[in-house]
Amino acid sequence: MHHTTYEVFNQPLALADYNLFAGNQGLHAALKFNTPGLDTAPLAALGAVLGSREMQGHARLANIHTPVLHSHDRVGQRIDQVEFHPSYHALMDLAVGAGLHGTPWTAEPGAWAHVQRAAGFMLFTELEPSTLCPISMTYAVTPALRGNAGVYADWGPKLASRAYDPTPTLWSNKPGVTMGMGMTEKQGGSDVRANTTQAMADGDDRWGDRYRVTGHKWFFSAPMCDAFLILAQTTSGLSCLFLPRVLPDGTQNDIRIQRLKDKLGNKANASSEVEFVDATAWLVGAEGRGIAQILEMGSMTRLDCALGTSGLMRQALSIALHHTTQRKAFGKPLIEQPLMRNVLADLALESEAACALALRLARAFDTPDDPHERAVARLLTPIAKFWICKRGSHFSQEAMECLGGNGYVEEGGEGIMARIYREMPLHSIWEGAGNIMAIDLLRALRKADTVAALMQELAPARGAHPALDRMARSLPDRVEEMTSELEARRLAQDLALTIQAALLYQSAPDAVFGAFCDSRLAGNWGQAFGTLGSGIDFDAILERARPY
Question: Does the model's pTM come out above 0.85?
Answer without folding.
Answer: yes
